[in-house]
Amino acid sequence: MSQPASHDATAPRTAITAPDGASARVYHDGAHVASWMPAGGTEQLFVSANARYGAGQAMRGGVPICWPQFGPFGALPQHGFARVSRWTLRDTAVGDAHADATFVLEDSAATRAVWPHRFHVAYTVRIGGAMLTMTLTVHNPGEAPFTFTGALHPYLRVPDAFGMQVVGLAGTRRRDALADGREDDETAASVEIHGPIDRIYYGAAQPLLMEPRPDAHAAATTRLRIEMEGFHDAVVWNPGAAGTAARADFVPGDEHHMLCVEAAMVRHPVTLAPGASWTGVQRVQAVG
């Protein structure tokens, strides 16, 4: 299973540790969470051994921030510029049961050249116990409204992606990128992962559970509970073997060891009036 590459040693990063031993590592480029270990647990995030680090790089794995655009749905490059921008560490804090790191991204000449808006984004990573909480707050300090989409894009570490399932998406409307964007209703009680998958689930309002399928033969024990606030959609993604082979920042076979279950807002973009703010939260809890 891929481990973080050794050539990240010079990339700016901040490590936090909670009083109970939970830990995380966040790179300043992209405010990218690249490691999360619950108290008494093991690594829960996947990072490819071929991941690229440093300014302007989109790291393959961890938790990329897709903002102010999700995917290709807009005029910006794929997933916008937040994940390839240098964020500023505002502060770190340790409480009785948690540790936090907060990063800030503001508009610059470079961002205004591709997206002509003033903005202030704060991103807080909190760890403690079995929980990772990621809070993204977008503020409009300008004089005109702006509209955005986005997502938090965790690559969750699993022993066998094709023995997993995601429970809690029944009743949503799904868009399947691997079927030319076809939309239909999700009626299954669980979404089983058997191969490549690239779907947006619109209106994903309830907590999700990522767990091994009952028929999985591998010793897959990872179970994660995923909750969202402010985000109204969910994305489930695994590139499959062809997808990892086609991307130089994956190692062939990585598709077996990662599954992305993302908090997103895609169908209904957020429009912020001058002076207004929006907050989205994703919580990931190890439950077994």
CATH fold call: Beta-galactosidase, Chain A, domain 5
Helix content: under 10%
Mean pLDDT equals: 94
In DSSP terms, counting alpha (H) and pi (I) runs of 4 or more, how many helices? 2
Report the principal-axis shape: globular
What CATH first level would be assigned? Mainly Beta
Oligomerization category of the chains in this entry: single chain
DSSP E strands, number: 20
Give the amount of beta strand, in percent.
35-45%
Q: Can you summarize the main beta sheet?
A: 9 strands, antiparallel
**What order do the SSEs take from the amino end to the carboxyl end, as H and E?**
EEEEEEHEEEEEEEEEEEEHEE
**CATH architecture term:** Distorted Sandwich
CA(first)-CA(last) distance: 20 Å
Briefly note the structural class of the backbone: mainly beta
The low-confidence runs, each spanning 5 or more residues with pLDDT under 50, are 1-7
Radius of gyration: 18 Å
How many domains is the backbone divided into? 1
Spatial order of the strands in the main sheet?
A: 5-6-7-8-20-17-16-11-14
Keywords:
288 residues; mainly beta; Beta-galactosidase, Chain A, domain 5; eight-stranded antiparallel β-sheet
